[in-house]
Known about the structure:
Helix content: 40-55%
Shape: globular
CATH class of the largest domain: Alpha Beta
CATH superfamily of the largest domain: Aminoglycoside phosphotransferase (APH), C-terminal lobe
Structural class: alpha+beta
Largest sheet: 5 strands, antiparallel
Order of helices and strands: HEEEHEHEHHHHEEEEHHHH
Strand order of the largest sheet: 1-2-3-5-4
CATH topology of the largest domain: Aminoglycoside 3'-phosphotransferase, Chain: A, domain 2
Amino acid sequence: MTQSIEGIHGDAVSAWFEAHIPGAQGPFTFSLIAGGHSNLTYAVDDAAGQRFVLRRPPLGHVLQSAHDVAREHRIISALAGSAVPVAPALGLCEDLAVNEAPFYVMRFVEGAVLHDADSARDLPAEARASLGEDVVDVLAALHAIDPDAVGLGTLGRKEAYIARQLKRWTTQWENSKQREIPAMDAARALLGERLPEQVGATIVHGDYRLGNMIVADGKIQGVLDWELCTLGDPLADVGYLLNAWVQPGEVDTRQGDQAPTAVGGFGDRDALAARYAEKTGRDLSAIAYYRAFSHWRLAAIGEGVYKRYRLGAMGSREDLDLSEFADSVVRRAEAALELLEGGQG
Length: 345
């Protein structure tokens, strides 16, 4: 009998591998790379010394649309061979009899994932600088791809991206808020009043940051985690990236470990924005608005997660400081309002 671990039925998945992944040889060993409440990522090692990666929805998930691995598989398959590096997609299984949930398989890509400041400290100065530039170049390349030309033209609605996001997350905030946070309401009002005109529609990653990239030798080897990808306003990706690009000595709005860029050497926000504008020709004069929107949206998302932890719906987490989690929501809301009140939005 093949080894099984939580989330993987070893025998059935192994049989599927041998039948559908060319060259894969059992027995297989499965190990969890990344868990949590996003799609789960497993390393799969075979008898021939090959390594694959398997992605499936989180355990006990309810909303299939929120963790649509077939959609992820479609996206990375469409981007294969483009200027956006992605892991090669090898196969998709939608037969729930195999593993009780759909999954897809991709080739393993060598490199490091910079989740936090500790993981970035060993990176040489020259690698940090070149990686900062490559992050911008790859984002510009993503936004240059014609969705229709690569078969992704029906991935989502193209128009009114920010307006639709504001409506969605306002409802989420109202349904999940655990306390009054005046900055959330004030920022929401200003975001609605200053809604910019969307210029064009591109593929939007939705979670574009170093923690979702495999890197080596100062370059991106693969962009990961496409589950939030859709079509819409490309400047939403830029605002999100700039917020994640925490500068040395800056207060990080997120909960938990420091961002990798906090160690310095990756280039500052102004340099990133200028490079993106040069590469794409897009006007970034209202980028503070998109940064504010990103902070506000993440605050709304964070409050929903905070509510579920408070109610025990996320299980017991003794290692999680709920007060710090709650404070991070306030920090994001206040950061959004500060950007908007600065007159740059």
